[in-house]
């Protein structure tokens, strides 16, 4: 299989549900052993890990708060200690706090930036010490970073826009070592946090060119391409999987 990840090890943050779970399962289908982090919902995380193991890969769920720098470092070290390598990092874990800028608290700001910006930076820094030729980093951004179509997204949009700079800088710094770094911008995706049948769904649906929500599997397919052989010459790129939200 051209895009096989056989024998490789992938770390997917926030992999217990939604887009993260879909990515973890797809990378396992592609042949990778997958470590997924979670903060809450241990049962769901273990279910994803069990599905990966059932495919004949190794699935490992590790509890880690992305807002804790020591936890971030510890996860990467644990992966390398157990498997002896790390080939793919997918920075998916994130939090969303929406609302008028005047209503946002300092605690809101700190939490969102810690999880959505600092954690991807720290995971990438820790992983870069172990990634070798052919290594991959994929950050999960948001369509909000490309088009803010409604009010109340100041903080969330700030955090996701920061990943553009991080990704391009990583691509430039790690490129000489044969490591790529790319950014995927999901649009409205049908998950338990933002269901296609939820109260805010119709407005989001109307903002897309395709007139529908996407699926976690569709985002995972984009990640699969970027970390596979087909993505070897793609780095520093932003790939929108948003149904035309930013068109």
Please give the CATH architecture: 3-Layer(aba) Sandwich
What overall form do the CA principal axes indicate? globular
Run of helices and strands: EHEHEHEHEHEHHE
What is the level 1 CATH name? Alpha Beta
Number of helices, counting only DSSP H or I runs of 4 residues or more = 7
CA distance, first residue to last residue: 33 Å
Portion of residues within helices = 40-55%
Which radius of gyration do the C-alpha atoms yield?
17 Å
Mean of all residue-level pLDDT scores: 96
Largest sheet: 7 strands, parallel
| Strand coverage percent | 5-15%
- Return the CATH topology: Rossmann fold
Q: Would you identify the regions where 5 or more consecutive residues have pLDDT less than 50?
A: none
SS elements, strand count: 7
Strand line-up of the largest beta sheet = 3-2-1-4-5-6-7
* Total domains: 1
CATH superfamily: NAD(P)-binding Rossmann-like Domain
Structural class: alpha/beta
Protein name: 3-oxoacyl-ACP reductase FabG
Domain Ketoreductase: 8-192
Family: Belongs to the short-chain dehydrogenases/reductases (SDR) family.
InterPro entries: KR_dom, NAD(P)-bd_dom_sf, SDR_fam
What does this structure look like?
The protein is α/β, with parallel strands linked by helices and 247 residues long. It has one domain: NAD(P)-binding Rossmann-like Domain (Rossmann fold), CATH 3.40.50.720. It is built from 7 helices and 7 strands. The protein has helices at residues 18-29, 42-54, 69-83, 106-128, 154-174, 201-207, 216-227; strands at residues 9-12, 33-38, 59-63, 88-91, 136-140, 180-186, 238-241. Strands 3-2-1-4-5-6-7 form a 7-stranded parallel β-sheet, sandwiched between helices. α4 runs parallel beside α5 (154-174). The longest helix has 23 residues, at 106-128. The two termini are 33 Å apart.
């Amino acid at each position: 299989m051209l895009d096989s990840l056989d024998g490789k090890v992938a770390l997917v943050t926030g992999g217990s549900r939604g887009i993260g779970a879909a990515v973890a399962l797809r990378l396992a289908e592609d042949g990778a052993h997958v470590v997924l982090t979670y903060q809450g919902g241990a049962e769901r995380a273990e279910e994803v890990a069990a599905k990966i193991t059932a495919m004949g890969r190794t699935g490992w769920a590790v509890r880690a708060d992305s807002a804790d720098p020591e936890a971030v470092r510890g996860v990467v070290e644990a992966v390398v200690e157990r498997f002896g390598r790390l080939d793919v990092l997918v920075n998916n874990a994130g939090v969303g706090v929406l609302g008028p800028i005047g209503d946002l608290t300092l605690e809101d700001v700190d939490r969102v930036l810690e999880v959505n910006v600092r954690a991807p930076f720290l995971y990438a820094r820790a992983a870069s010490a172990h990634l070798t030729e052919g290594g991959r980093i994929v950050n999960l951004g948001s369509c909000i970073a490309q088009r803010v179509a409604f009010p109340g997204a100041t903080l969330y949009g700030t955090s996701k826009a920061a990943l553009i700079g991080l990704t391009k800088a990583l691509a430039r710094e790690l490129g000489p070592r044969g490591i790529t770094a790319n950014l995927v911008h999901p649009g409205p995706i049908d998950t338990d946090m933002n269901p296609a049948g939820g109260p805010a769904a119709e407005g989001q649906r109307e903002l897309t060119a395709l007139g529908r929500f996407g699926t976690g599997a569709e985002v995972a397919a984009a990640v699969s391409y970027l970390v596979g052989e087909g993505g070897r010459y793609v780095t520093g790129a932003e790939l929108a999987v948003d149904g035309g939200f930013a068109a």
